[in-house]
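May I ask for a protein sequence together with how it folds?
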Amino acid sequence: MMDIRKVQVTGKSTYIVTIPKKWAVRSKLKSGSPLSIDYAEDGSLVIKPPGFKESKKIKKVRADKKPEHLKRDIIGLYIVGDHQTIEIQGNDLSREFREEIRNLCARLVGFELVESTDSTLVIQDYLDSDEFTIEKGIKRMSSIIYLMLEELYLAFEENDRSVCRDIIRRDDDIDRMFILVSRQYVNRMNLRKVSEKDDLSLIEAFYYRLAGSDIERIGDHISKIALHYEYTDIHPEFLKSLKELCRELQKIFMDSVESLREYDNELANMVLESGEQFDARLVIAGNMQAGDHIEIIIDSFSRIKDYASNIAEHAIDLSQL
């Protein structure tokens, strides 16, 4: 039920509106009680009484579906971020299943498995969303991608496959950050849950979330390149070409991220032009050595460039704001 209140003006600049008595009594307000007023982006105000705390919701889930399906549900609950506690209930939960859930929680920042029995698993959400912003997440993801490309470059330069496993493991960090960015984006869509440290508008948050998806896919393809390189014999001349392409791709990617952060239209267009030149060199490199693994590596290089170009296009859109 909505109450309609009329605004009264006293003096020249003081606006007064009364509050519903039922709400005041239920909130135990007295004369002089301080109220917290939050300004939402849609123009509305959120008024909170003293000592107000968000209710801690509990989500109960039955373990009566395939483990992979249940794990996807848990990730969805994490991203929505609307429950403090998740209880998984079932009959005779196996040790293997409980370990799978524990490993999943390790991939979700702030999630912790606090109880594990044959019939119940309890996951607690300890994440302080105010301490993490979408911008911080994108910056962290970009730094990891830069490091992955640097390690891949060194692997090509020294023909050293020992770092491939490390590169692949770093992709797990990218995935963790992207899920967290997705959660923060959902929070940003909820105008009442915006972190005080989040300076992005809804439009900016939308494009940053798109960029996060592109960066996550780039991580997947760097990991794929490392995996196939680990088991492929490559001619030294072709390896030299891959090394040069890797360095060029690293610059394209970092320039695309910089154009996004600065809303730099000119730099974004330079990224797109560099991408076209990169494609031409990629075709030449692809003709140097044949093989299924080589084709996959070349294809992943191309896709990384495409995703970097997407980020540059997001920057061009944002430059129009």
